[in-house]
Write a structure and sequence with these properties.
heterodimer; A: mainly alpha; flat; B: Rossmann fold; about 45% helix; globular
Chain lengths: ~130, ~350
């Protein structure tokens, strides 16, 4: 739908969308005020603690069920993610070492007394006037 | 009687994988195009030149034959992926800086794992950043750097500069950096010790999971996400808009955990006790006094930033002791400030000009 016929369109879904977008700011402000209320914050804090406890209990029992079904649990997936993270870190370490070795091997090929930095762009740029 | 040979576990797994792949291709034809729409993120060519644990220091490959003398090091926030600074071609601060002739490095903190829950601000400010700066100095052969920090990265960069007043930071730039927790009243209310048991949270979880961080950001503006989706629907025929929107969405959904002990320090010392703005924060017994920052300083804030409101960041410029200090306030939000259309048109050229004059 082109923007030129926007004004003529009485599509109720579109009208609702426009109204929602226009009202969003004031709704957010209202909700922010509510969220800043001490009582709401108190119940949110309580909810976070209870949810944390419930989540742990649920995860533990769910993990047993999933293990019985030979499926991975969320903690299994997270453990896998951690292992991938460790592998990535190891690869990064190897990349650094390869780069250093390459630099060491390249150095003797440069002219006597030349520095490795000469093969890089000159650091002489000045701002345009 | 002859038994039929039973398939091995590997064969069953391969058959299952093939069946799942077939089902996905049959039933979710749009799946591939989503990836195609966002494209590869953080793809500007770079090399890892140093790593320590999850930290990686990248050097981006220069795009010019002649570059400014002073290199730039970008310091990322601890709770966000660094590719927001290098989203995609034409929407990448890194690419822009390279095109303008800067030598660009980036400190990517990586994703903390359970064994990193004990990391503290001291580790980041007094160990990791100094190590990276040393490597940069050796790598480029220059004794100084321009440091650019985004959000919490700005806090780290400011702390480092304040505690290393004699160098090697030559210029300091902070994007939307919170220093006054009174400007973050919702966070203060939510983390009030009267009803928020921080110790229990960290003891139970170790690191703060990204879901919790994302929910807390969403709670600041609960209707924003839906309004964003509706805006996407309205602009669904505008391919550039859709692509940019999806890239932001993908980044926003790709949060990382917050190392437990650092989160404890952040909430206790900054959010609850507001020590930064009072110059009362100490790291390893050393007082962090922003008045010690005497290098040229630039602060960039966003008018409609709900994550770090202007009230939380505007005191920084008054706190630093530099004589040469400037502030730029732009329209936009916390993320669009560094990667949105306004950033491309307005912020980046100003940043280029400011840095270029001070990078000789």
């Amino acid at each position: 739908m082109s923007k030129s016929d926007k004004g003529l369109n009485l599509d109720p879904v579109r009208l609702w969308r426009e109204w929602y977008q226009q009202s969003e700011k004031s709704w957010n402000e209202g909700i922010s005020q509510l969220m800043g209320d001490e009582r709401v914050a108190k119940s949110t804090g309580k909810y976070v603690q209870e949810a944390m406890h419930a989540q742990r209990m649920f995860s533990e029992s769910m993990a047993k069920w999933l293990a019985n079904l030979n499926f991975p649990s969320r903690s299994d997936v997270l453990a896998l993610s951690d292992r991938i993270g460790k592998l990535e870190d190891t690869i990064a370490g190897l990349q650094v070492e390869i780069r250093q070795l390459r630099q060491t091997l390249t150095k003797p090929n440069l002219a006597n007394g030349a520095d490795l930095h000469v093969v890089r762009p000159k650091r002489t740029k000045t701002p345009p006037k | 009687m002859q038994h039929e040979q039973r398939p091995s576990t590997e064969e069953i797994a391969a058959q299952a994988r093939a069946a799942v792949d077939r089902a996905l291709q049959r039933h979710i034809p749009g799946l591939n195009s989503l990836d195609e729409l966002t494209g590869e993120l953080g793809a500007t060519p770079k090399d890892v030149i140093y790593s320590q644990g999850t930290l990686k220091l990248y050097r981006y490959r220069p795009l010019c034959d002649e570059i400014y003398r002073v290199p730039i090091v970008l310091v990322m926030s601890l709770v966000s992926r660094s590719y927001i600074l290098d989203l995609t071609k034409g929407q990448s601060l890194v690419e822009f800086l390279l095109q303008q002739g800067f030598d660009v490095y980036l400190i990517d903190w990586g994703v903390p794992r359970p064994e990193h829950a004990t990391l503290r601000l001291e580790d980041y400010v007094l160990d990791f950043i100094p190590a990276c700066v040393r490597v940069i100095n050796e790598d480029c052969g220059e004794p100084d750097v321009s440091m650019v920090g985004y959000c919490m990265g700005g806090q780290l960069a400011s702390m480092y500069t304040a505690l290393h007043a004699d160098g090697p930071v030559k210029n300091l730039v902070c994007f939307t950096t919170p220093v006054n927790a009174e400007g973050m009243s919702l966070y203060r209310t939510w983390t009030d010790p009267a009803h928020f048991d921080l110790d229990q949270l960290i003891t139970t979880l170790g690191n703060i999971p990204p879901e919790l961080i994302e929910v807390s950001f969403d709670m600041l503006r609960p209707f924003q996400k839906t309004a964003g989706q509706l805006k996407l629907l309205d602009n669904v025929e505008d391919e550039a808009f859709v692509k940019a929107h999806l890239r932001f969405e993908r980044w926003a959904a790709d949060q990382i955990p917050f190392a437990g002990e650092t989160a404890r320090q952040f909430i206790t010392d900054f959010i609850r006790e507001n020590k930064l703005v009072r110059n009362e924060l100490t790291l390893a017994g050393r007082k962090v006094d922003f008045g010690q920052i005497r290098v040229p300083f630039l602060h960039v804030a966003a008018e409609h930033d709900h994550i770090v409101p202007a009230e939380a960041s505007r005191d920084l410029i008054g706190l630093v002791g530099s004589k040469d200090k400037n502030e730029i306030v732009l329209k936009g939000g916390h993320v669009s400030l560094v990667a949105g259309a306004n950033a491309v048109r307005r912020l980046w050229p100003q940043l280029d000009k400011w840095l270029a004059e001070r990078s000789l």
